[in-house]
Automatic annotation (TrEMBL), chains A, B:
A Pfam match: PALP
Limits of the Tryptophan synthase beta chain-like PALP domain: 66-369
Reported cofactor(s): pyridoxal 5'-phosphate
Protein name according to UniProt: Pyridoxal-phosphate dependent enzyme
InterPro entries in UniProt: Ser/Thr_Dehydratase (IPR050147), TrpB-like_PALP (IPR001926), TrpB-like_PALP_sf (IPR036052)
GO molecular function, one term: lyase activity
Keyword terms: Lyase, Pyridoxal phosphate
Transmembrane residue ranges: none
Amino acid sequence: MPVNRTCWNCGARTDDDHRVRCDCGEPLWLATDPEAVPGEWPASIESMWDALPLLGVEAPTPPPGVSTAAGGTPLVRADSLDTEGVAVHVKLEGLNPTGSFKDRGTAFGVAAALEAGETRIGTVSHGNMAESVAAHAAATGMDCTVLVPADIADSRLAAIGRYDPRLVRVDGDYGRLYYDALEVGREAGVRFLNSDVPWRVAGQATTAIETLAQFGRGEGEFPDALVIPVSSGGHASATWQAVRTLTAAGLLDEPPKLCFVQAAACAPIAEAFARGDDTVTPAEGGETIAYSIANADPPSGNRALAAARATDGAVVGVDDDAIKRAGEQFAGAGLAVEPSSATTLAAIERLRSDGVLDAGDEVALVATGRGFGDDGVAVETERIDRSALGTLFDAAPGAEGA
Amino acid sequence: MPVNRTCWNCGARTDDDHRVRCDCGEPLWLATDPEAVPGEWPASIESMWDALPLLGVEAPTPPPGVSTAAGGTPLVRADSLDTEGVAVHVKLEGLNPTGSFKDRGTAFGVAAALEAGETRIGTVSHGNMAESVAAHAAATGMDCTVLVPADIADSRLAAIGRYDPRLVRVDGDYGRLYYDALEVGREAGVRFLNSDVPWRVAGQATTAIETLAQFGRGEGEFPDALVIPVSSGGHASATWQAVRTLTAAGLLDEPPKLCFVQAAACAPIAEAFARGDDTVTPAEGGETIAYSIANADPPSGNRALAAARATDGAVVGVDDDAIKRAGEQFAGAGLAVEPSSATTLAAIERLRSDGVLDAGDEVALVATGRGFGDDGVAVETERIDRSALGTLFDAAPGAEGA
């Protein structure tokens, strides 16, 4: 299966199915063909495989099992989250098979690897991506290696380990491991599905395609902006690949504003955006409750910067207090999301004051992963005896006729 | 909105929207009208609201938010779970908004309550149902009361409490509370969405409708059996309501075998089935890792018994060792499910030896809730230094050309 690759940055093309980065240093994309995109939005989306044709890439067929179930997540209107006149919709990526958006890229990557006759995959992650890759490998009987930091928490080990991959704790600079693993994997014939490799990016592009399709229901209405957490920049890259292709194919008149959000404690892309830089400088990387997006040296950071600028969007950082408050607001709307996802809601105020969003705008927040309820919510309870149950509603607010 | 109720047991009918149980003691159903069922299976199912018309009940419109996202979960083929010649498909109910099948019944119940002008709901649960009801109430601004046992675990309190319902710890017999709450709620104008009330059952019926629709893709092919965990019997009741209506409407020639599974340590319905009884006798109720289905006095137990008998299905119990092994097998197929869901796979061997299932049968296992990875999986790891990464695949099984 010869697959063309293109560089978003320098325009280079290659037919090497194993290349993931360009000589210019930037990540490669699978080549898209806007002419191959269907002329209209899909009537319904049950999984990412219904959205993928709109990306115009050579798409693999998913193997049976969990990969067929990736994507097709709901987009819901959540009016109690409306902020400063901005109407909020939420894309519930936590309803993917392993609980996060990562299943989309994994499903594409696994399907493409199998079609290429490869049976060995890996990833560098101790979070959502590790769970996702291990699960999809298990479902297909692929050999799977997951590189985790040596000091990984036991709870993370259990969540990944239940799918029984080869788990390797690595001592040393975990950030650089991203590139090392791609190289070692290529030499050994092990396809590393890291966060911004072309197969993963193509799969992740379906989040945006679905969101736009579900918002408009084929009627030509689209959100004014997509607000997405950014870590490595892989999802940002995917989102831009999607909206560029949809625009080129004539399905979108103009792209929505792409707004990316980081935790302020580790926000190298937001800082570069604020400075007006074209490239991202690695950050020191402080602690944050949104640890799953704390990437001090994001491999697709330049790509996220360019995507935000090209669409009149922005990249902003939000602090932990705001993230915590936003997480509680999400729960108050019946939606349990992880702190990294809560950043999207926390960012609206800033995006309004910066003039990126206006009152009356409709935005889609991409809630990338589900919440676990273990983030120290203080819970108040009452206590009664069953024999006194008849008095339960006597003193309750708004009780009537009890 | 006058809504007719029917009793599956004695055939009684009532127009009282607040009645949930018949004078004969059995749970009431919303009346179904097979004439009102569309003449064909839906072309696609994005949520339960696409499946609900096939139940032929007077269906409410969901309020915006999480209720619109209930159901529409994937059905996946998992060939690595095939057992003794039985081909396995899995319905991934853990991909509902709050992580379990309960969202279907809650979404219906909340929508129906709002249409009836009611704003106060409640439930008796410390598990999936409590999370679900609290989340849907939060999304709609409804007043919500959750009755939990006095000795509830902190982790459960946090999972429910994040949606900020009124949480009441009740001392005394928690099993009987099910009925007490219905009575107290009715007097106080608080609609308790307990596990077998007619609104919840109507919503839960969509699990079976979706499964049958997805399996056949409108081509007239259906699974030979549905295998479902049973606790209160509410889901079993719902499943039977669905297949009876679909059969009456001419969409099914004959119902699939309905097989229900309990944990052997607390299996009053399975014991009644084995004895050939028509009614369920309350059990003592021992400890099991599948604690979320350990219901010693199931309010719709008789209904589950009748449904299994009427469809040539069965009710069986499986022990904790088998449940644990089945949970590991699910994970080995990339599917993390809770122990109560793992019972379905554990049951196949028994259903085969009892002659309920045959080699060559295709079954759909309903995995009612997601797994959390906290069930004590032993995880093996290796450890290397980043500087030695080049040797990563040297000694690995199947390594080539490294």
